[in-house]
């Protein structure tokens, strides 16, 4: 195989991975010249070698035998992608050194690296193969039939390891010994939504909602608080602390412990807010576990609207949306059950309310797995001052077989008990579970006992790309009570004014308690690769013992034709809150939306048209364009004009920016006799030992990246807009707990005079932790040395170049050039150049650096050549070679 072909692929792979910093045009030419050399393999003694005669075309000796004979790599430290049995396990700096037994340069494995690639080091210790005083192991010496092959064109290290020698844990599992509690810090996550409405009658209305999620991490403990600050015209500003709690891992039980105010999380009972203590299994600590479930909320806005989502009367989500269809996919509901009330507030003040069903999936766990939750605390009312009874709650699920799960639970408070049992079965047609609950409620000497059955079904049909779930429940008689029902009825019976007026039916026989409920979700892709589009259906139907009902549903179809995308949808809500307010409400909305790109390019602006028609009303229409600025992809805009359902004109415009310090959007709307402006801003403030950083909105678990010495504006790879601040820290807004998260720095936008010590680092944070990844950086001056021998000929290809301080600078290319990064202290010195059995020294002094110069070119000529000493000093430990481009240095170890 021609080496030039390999080198071309190798350089392409490096560029595609972003591992090589942007280099000047001259350096690119250097690579091109180097890759023009063809080297063919010829048989050697016991191994393959290379015919170096092809390298004598310039009339000069080529010192490449040590580079090419017998190995595809020189000793050093290489940044490679590691694949274990064809599975990517990470990107690491790996030491390659000469194996004394074979004389070949091979990968050197430390015990930590063996663990990271999934090899069972416990078994190796028991066999006495791992020694405390050794940090370099050869894979074939440790494990029979194992091997490590370096694919130099792809910068890839392929490991072949018998399955018996790998850890028994399943895919995605990370040993608890490497779970990281992170650094101590404090943070505030904020979400600000503010709007100012002005009508033609000189009336103005202002409303502001500030959502806060605050946290403090100290060791293994996490302190959290969720609060909101609301204000509106004519109403006093109100601060609400929704809940405050302490949380930590209980590793031995694979569980979480909560102390304070939070929500129960039972698969059998409705979630309630409480103040007390709770401990529950954390499935994220186990391999291949479910990572939780949250519904997708769909709707349609007629203007720059505000969408508010409440659960148990608490605001859990708020966002401004542009006109047209919207989807909310980043919702984090509290507890495992409890409807979501969605309010769409249009720019003219109109409100539309719909209810979104939310319930847990079928009762299924893996064979032999036990999941549990246990709670003891004080019930927290959602409305006003009332009873706060102490209650206990517990449930468990056990996987009896791979297809059968058993579940049971108990809930008890003063005057109330509930017992639940259920089972889940995995069948060919999907997972289905059935559970039954018996309740006993006693209020002022009156006892009521009732039963409820609940059926849950879920199935994803891979062959047809169909996703369906059904949740159906029925109270067998009107006396069934949940814990919340019991507490509210007790409050009403004791004369609490709010409950007596708002829940008049709680004390009656024929009451507004739920009788039946049906939740259905269906998503279907049509044809191969969605050739014929996709459809979805999401519906909920509630019926009560007083013959009232509440239902809502949404359905839609979406597809694309060439560059045109279109969507047709319908939403319906009826009698949404009849069980509480005894009010009737019915609304049906039909929507049609179209969008297509305006022009070509990578991310062209999108033109869209939205039309909607409400029940009993006229049709509204909006047309607009959205996009990002060509000069800055982090700045987005939207301009819309249209006609309202009343026939009058309306319009809106917005501009937003997503940066490393947060996100902000400004909006303006106008319509029939009103004008409205809006502001949405979200982000985070993180205070830690290294200073204070502004950041994008944080998820539950996140990470810090530190560059030392401190360096500002270094981008973090794979996280748009995230870069280091003046203190050298960057906040990575999300990370997956108990899983390997690979963090790296991007060469894009980095100065050519900067190098980072490690390409990627792995962090495994615990839930709620902020893991720290530290990268060492070096900076200086990029210098290209053009080297000549005393007779005026170029230094031979493959000659090694070392600084007099012992640092390896590089290997000469076919034109005798070496591109190196010198530190700020290395402005002068002496170079030692070695080839064949010869060496020479030459002194250098760097001139003043010119502004805007990427690198400095210097020509140097040796004065004398001396033989290489017969008995050289022992070879030093492998060095990282400071070079911007892996040499042609092609096989030069890179940093």
TrEMBL record:
Keywords: Cell outer membrane, Fimbrium biogenesis, Membrane, Signal, Transmembrane, Transmembrane beta strand, Transport. GO terms for cellular component: cell outer membrane. One of its GO terms (biological process) is pilus assembly. It holds the Pfam family PapC_C. GO terms for molecular function: fimbrial usher porin activity. Residues 866-886 are annotated as: Disordered. Its main location: membrane. Residues 786-848 form the PapC-like C-terminal domain. Residues 50-193 form the PapC N-terminal domain. Gene3D superfamilies: 2.60.40.2070, 2.60.40.3110, 3.10.20.410, Outer membrane usher protein FimD, plug domain (2.60.40.2610). The keyword Signal applies. It is a multi-pass membrane protein. It is found in: Cell outer membrane. Belongs to the fimbrial export usher family. This is Fimbrial biogenesis outer membrane usher protein. It comes from Pseudomonas veronii.
